[in-house]
């Protein structure tokens, strides 16, 4: 008999997370403690933990992406030292492991953590140290997890070529760095503005993922693919290139959607965040359910756990509940993410064959 899909069962099941911003996943208590240490507390909107969480979530629910991004002022402020970055990275790993995540990729933009003199190498050193310490403690607690890092360049700035050169250089000595990304506000800053950096990334065979979820909709996704993106960050507006056949109810695909499906380009979707910024009216209206059932390579992500007030398990449960997914379909979402991760091939195979497939086969039996 197939096990019932419940919130508790989803929490316990193994999960894979590919789109999670380190500076968007801090614990509220950590923000308060680090703010006190560096004298940032007077700038916080409140020092009450419950009220502070509510303030961050209101920013996410504003349906205004720029207002949403403005909340990062406070999280980035407490991540300007190696100790602060290392602590946040450590807590990220421990928190994800406690939520049943077995593999994750977290991301940050080093240029945002250099306000007090840290350089690129110091930021990555602190990040990697925190990730490894978290992995050790999670394993000791019986929740093994591996977490790697995606390094972002801010698309609204002009440092992408510098950043991608640093990524290429440091990956030779720091295997935790697995990919390059363009992050930040998208409308008006298409990937083509960073063509030189992306050409270098392609020439050096770097893994590339690019955020593409804002207006002008399909143009950003197409531009990201043209510049070598292996994965698309969000990609929610690809639904603009689909329709429903009125006679059969089947999904009808335009040329871009057909390309993404045929080439199995992974879409790093974050339904709650996509809803909060106004890309879709609700999780139930999100294309992730129809896309999954049409064979698209989609996965479930948190984007910013603090701002959206979500966990990987709550996101997966929200999608499962909204679309009535069974364990086979939930397992496919997780397997999609594992197969599309930037972990080495042998790590992906081991994770799928020894952890994910056995767990979901048991749940679906």
Automatic annotation (TrEMBL):
InterPro entries tied to this protein: A_deaminase_dom (IPR001365), Ado/ade_deaminase (IPR006330), Metal_Hydrolase (IPR032466)
Enzyme Commission code(s) on record: 3.5.4.4
Keyword Zinc: yes
Start and end residues of each Adenosine deaminase domain: 14-357
Gene3D superfamilies: Metal-dependent hydrolases
Pfam families according to UniProt: A_deaminase (PF00962)
MF-aspect GO terms: adenosine deaminase activity; metal ion binding
Cofactor (UniProt): Zn(2+)
Keywords carried by this UniProt record: Hydrolase, Metal-binding, Zinc
GO CC term (a single one): cytosol
One of the GO biological process terms: hypoxanthine salvage
NCBIfam families: aden_deam, PRK09358.1-2
PANTHER family, sorted: ADENOSINE DEAMINASE
Protein family: Belongs to the metallo-dependent hydrolases superfamily. Adenosine and AMP deaminases family.
Name this polypeptide is given: adenosine deaminase
Source organism of the structure: freshwater metagenome
